[in-house]
Amino acid sequence: MNFDLDQEHELVRSTVRAFAEERVAPVAEELDRESRFPYDLVGELAELGLMGMTIPEAYGGAGADTVSYAIAIEELTRVDSSVAITVAAHHSLGTLPIFYFGSEEQKQRWLPELAAGRKLSAFGLTEPGAGSDAGATRTHAELRDGEWVVNGSKIFITNAGTDITACVTITARTGEDEISNIIVPNGTPGYEISKPMKKLGWRASDTRELSFKDAAVPDENLLGPRGQGFQQFLEILDGGRISVAAMGVGLAQGAYDLAYGYAQERQQFGKPISKFQAVQFKLADMATELEAGRNLVYKAAWLKDQGRDFALAAAQAKLFTGELSNRAVNWALQIHGGYGYMDEYAISRLYRDQKILEIGEGTNEVQRMVIARHLGV
Amino acid sequence: MKIAVCVKQVPEGNSRIDPGTKRLDRSGEGALNGFDANAVEEALRLRDATGEGEVVLVSLGPAKAQDVLRKALAMGADRAVHVSDETAGGSDLVATSYALAKALEREGADLILFGQQAADSDGAVLWAAVADRLRLPVVSQAAELTHAGGKLTIKRQTEFGYDVIEAPLPAVVAVSDAINEPRYPSLKGIMGAKSKPQETLSLAELEIEPERAGEPGSRTEVYALSDPPARADSRKIDDDGNAAQAILDFLAEKRLV
């Protein structure tokens, strides 16, 4: 048994932490206020190799393991969730499906640009009428004269509409009881992308509604075998849960750090509020839950790296860190008192950024369904 | 051009001195000394400008110092020499410069770069001592460095402007933090660092006599440690709504405004 991270992992942490504090933190508040997509930061993250972390070097990635990836996402989220989800969605939802299920030709065509972060990609699963019940996808694609003709709509799709987005991989009905994944390049006639959606949090990230009206893409844009779409997206979501679980730990750590700092500065009744047991106990609980949550996330990532079944661990990590981050931002804001409710204090942004962690990549309720299924009940 | 860069691991955050040993407490987290990151960056730029040559890291420090060598390798250095020996603990300027000079002699680099000073001890003299032992020219506080026609041109930061100095190679140069902005290690760099050559040498392997290393080889003795005295003429101003005026009056009284 060994709980020590490798030297590489520590170096990933210190590098991403330094980047987040020096490059992201100074602009996070402004990006959020202006709901502005962080193109410059994405360019810098791409140079560092953070946009295609676990993609092998042969396809333009950095060849890192999932534990390194989880650490990087955690450290980015500690400072800013919008930047973190941009990286996580591009990597785990946009790029990995092509790496996992694409033909060699598809990999050669898409991965070098995506893994290097020069282009972004998205994954379009959720529909207005198909959220937790993702199998209820109504978007359909019909094979006509060697082309898939797509009709339907998607919603809440991250990274779909940036200036540097190359494509979206969508789930579509390709038969009566058949779902397949199809790559739709941006710019395809009939594929329309809404204006950025307005959100409670993650405001600097790109979230869109997509609509397809007779949008035709070549036959070879089918990802993997026809009819495998359902299985494929379940697999993608399993891995994506590690991303969002890492975000839960990072967000909670960020909230804890803010509260810890504020509690020593803020004086009431003649002493720093950190000297009051009511505040100490909150910090003690947060630190304890953080430790538990981090271990769950790293274990899920480690299982994935070992090639072992990680679906249960990922769902447990996602559920636990989603809920723990909720408690953490709540307590951290409480420790800040009235100041925490003001935009000038970063905790207010972290508070808004938290809620989606209990919804995206499967709600808390869906995680419990997944976990219960693994328990055999 | 072969460039050697001397790097040091310094304690992260505020340094603490162990009152028992009167040495710096190095038990906590360590980090690559900031000025040394500038030296590594400059070495990489010089190497990459010509596309040839080698950047070798040299460090004297405990086993833990490997972390900073790994970081500098991840930034892009080619290999690392780590002088690590239990008996080297407590080395002062005299012993440290001797050990480093021995390691550097073995490398025979064209250019030896140092960060101007270390964030823990802030001595800012080690490079001079090493250069003296190696009988090489030395230029400090380099804010710009160019290499052409077999010689170096160095823009040296001074209190009143810049000196421009030419130096033949081989030479020792200590860089200031104005010289560049060190890069972050890239993910590829981090993943590739492990497989780069890393050598650990004992003092015996460098033929350093035990009496010239660690405390026996040092000429500095710490007699006592104490907190700096409180500033005599400080004044605390409580803000009763007139603090700004009080501060202004204070500064005017001192003829500072």
Using the coordinates above, name the CATH class of chain B.
Alpha Beta
Are there runs of chain A of 5+ residues with pLDDT below 50, and where?
Answer: none
Overall mean pLDDT of chain B: 93
Strand line-up of the largest beta sheet of chain B: 9-8-7-10-6-1-4-5-11
What is the first-to-last residue Cα distance of chain B?
Answer: 53 Å
Which H/E pattern describes the elements of chain B? EEEHEHEHEHEEEEHEH
Gross morphology of chain B: globular
* Class based on secondary structure composition and strand pairing of chain B: alpha/beta
Shape of chain A: globular
Beta content of chain B comes to 15-25%
Number-wise, the strands of chain B total: 11
Q: Which spans of chain B of ≥5 residues are poorly predicted at pLDDT below 50?
A: none
Q: Which secondary-structure class do the elements of chain A indicate?
A: alpha+beta
CATH uppermost class of the largest domain in chain A: Mainly Alpha
How many domains comprise the coordinates of chain B?
1
Most extensive interface, residues per chain?
A: A-B, 19 and 16 residues
The CATH topology name of the largest domain in chain A reads: Butyryl-CoA Dehydrogenase, subunit A, domain 3
Main sheet record of chain B: 9 strands, mixed
Radius of gyration of chain B: 21 Å
